[in-house]
Amino acid sequence: MAILLSVPVLGITLVLQTAIAGRIHLLSGTFDLILLVLAAWALQEQVKAAWVWAVLGGLMVGIVSGLPWYVSLFGYLVVVGVGRLLTRRVWQAPLLAMFSITFMGSLIMGTLSLMILRFFGDPLPMGESYSLVILPSILLNLLASIPVFWIVRDMARRLYPAAVEA
Amino acid sequence: MKKISPRTLQTAIIVLVAVGVVVLALGGYFQTASSWFGGLIVDSQTWISNRYLAMVDFLTFPRDLASLRQRNAELEAEVARLQTQIIELEQQVTETEILSALVDFARANPENTYKAATVIGRDPSPFLNYVIINIGANDGILPGMPVVTQQGLVGQVDAVVGEAARVIMINDPASAVNVRLQKANTEAMLVGSLTGDLSLDMISQDAIIEPGDVILTSGLGGGYPPNILVGQVVSVRKLDYELFQQASVQPVVNFSQVQFVLVITNFKPVDIKPLLPTR
Fold first, then answer.
1. Which of A105, A143, B170, B181 is the most buried (most CB within 10 A)?
2. Span of A85-94, A128-137, B170-179, B244-253 with lowest mean pLDDT
3. CA A61 from centre of chain
C-alpha cells in the first residue's frame, strides 16, 4: 500500500515543486519538496518502504530535471539513509531529527549537484554556488520542513494505524 | 298655576343651550374655538399615531435586522463572485494580450513557423535555468529548436517527451550563444550565469561598444537563427592586458516571468561538433 501510495504522493509533490516551489526564490536558492517529503517519510518509525520512495522520487526528478538522473537518485538515497539512521539510533525527537536531516540533505544534494555540473564543464564558481544557491536553499528547506513533516507524519499514521497504537 | 317640575326645567334649559350653541355656531361665532379644538385633536392624533408607528417599528425591528443580515450576506457573496470574475477576466485579458503580441511577432517574422506553448514548470534544481513547456514530440518539437517570445530570444529546446519539452534558457550557466553587436558590427559570445545575469565575452579589443548597443543572434555555429533580439549592453569592461572585452547585458526577456513562448519549428540546428578540430 505504501509503495502504491508513493506514486501519487511523489507525483503531486513533483508537480508542486516544478509549478510553484521552483518559482519561489531566495537569492538563487529554491525549495526541494521531494527531499523534504522523503526525509519526513524516512523519519517515521513505522514506515518500511522508505527506500522504494527514495528510488522512485530520484527517478522522477531525474526524468524532469536537466541534471543527470543519477544525481537525484543517489542524493535522495543518501538522504533516506541518513533519515533511517537518525530514526533508529540517534534521536527520538522527531522535529530535531527533521531539521538535522533537512540541513544535511540539502547540503549533500547541493554539493553533489555542484560537483557533477562542474565535472561536466559548467562554469559554476564554488563560492557563489554556496552563498547564492546552496545556503539559501537550506534556509528555505528548513522553513518548509515543519509543515511537510506534520503532513507526512499524519499520512504515515493513517497508513499504519496499528503501529501507532502499539 | 301648575308647577313646572325640575326635570322638565332642566331639559328645557339643556335644549335652549343646545339650540343657542347651534345658532351661534351657524352664525360663525365659534370659528376660533372650533379651530383651536380641531387643531388640538389633529395634534393629539398625530402624536399618538407617531408613537404607535414608532412602537410598531421597535417591535418589528429584529425581524428586519435578520432579513437585512441575510440580504447583506447575499450581496457580499455576489460581490465576492463578481470580484472572482473580474480577476478571471483580467487574467484572460493579460493572456490575450500576450498571445496577441506573440501573433504579431509571428506575423512580423513570416520566414519562420512557430508553435505557441505555455510554460508549465521550472527545473527542480536551483542550479539550472530550465523551463518546461506543454508541447513536445507529438507536436513536432525536436531538441535544438529555438524558443522565443515577442520580446526576443528565450533559449533552446533541450529535451523532449510526447507532451512536453524542457527548454534551456540563455541565462543558464551552461548556455553560450553566438551574438552580434548591431552598432559595432562585431561578434561576441553571450553566456549565462548562476544568478541568471547575462554577459558578453570574446569581444574583440578593437571593437567600439557602448551601453545601449543592441545585441542580436549572429547565426554562427548553427545553434540559433540570425537576427533574433537578445538584449542591450549595460556596461563594458575593457582592460588592456586582457585578450577580449567583456560586457554585461540587459536581456529583453524577463526570464522569471515567462508564461508563453513560441518554438521556431522550421529551424534545424546544425551540429558542428564533428567539424571542430580535435587538437
1. B170
2. A85-94
3. 11
Q: Quick one: pLDDT at residue B3? A: 74
CA distance A65 to chain B (A): 5
Answer whether 0.95 is exceeded by the pTM. Answer: no
Q: Is the Cβ of A70 closer than 8 Å to some Cβ of chain B? A: no
pLDDT at B196 over 50: yes
Residue B238 and residue B182 share a domain: yes
Give phi and psi for B145, each to the nearest 5: -70, 135
Residues with Cβ < 8 Å from B257, sequence gap 6 or more?
none
Residues A60-94 have pLDDT tens digits of: 899 888 888 899 999 999 999 888 887 776 656 77
Query: How close B203 comes to chain A (CA, Å)?
Result: 19
Domain that holds residue B42: 9-108
In whole angstroms, how far apart are CA A153 and each of A26, A76, A164, B44, B245? 27, 19, 11, 78, 56
Tally the domains of chain B. 2
pLDDT band at B1 (very low <50, low <70, confident <90, very high): low
Please check whether residues B89 and B140 belong to one and the same domain.
no
Is B126–A17 a contact, with Cβ atoms under 8 angstroms apart? no
Mutate to test the interface with A, among B119, B123, B125, B130 (most CBs of A within 10 A): B125
- Residue B169: inside a domain, yes or no? yes
ipTM field:
0.85
Last residue of a domain, one of B108, B143, B168: B108
Nearest chain A residue to B194, by CA: A124
In this structure, is residue B275 part of a structural domain? no
* B62 and B23 in a common domain: yes
Instruction: Tell me, yes or no, whether B171 and B152 share the same domain.
Output: yes
- Given an 8 Å threshold on Cβ–Cβ distance, is A124 in contact with B127? yes
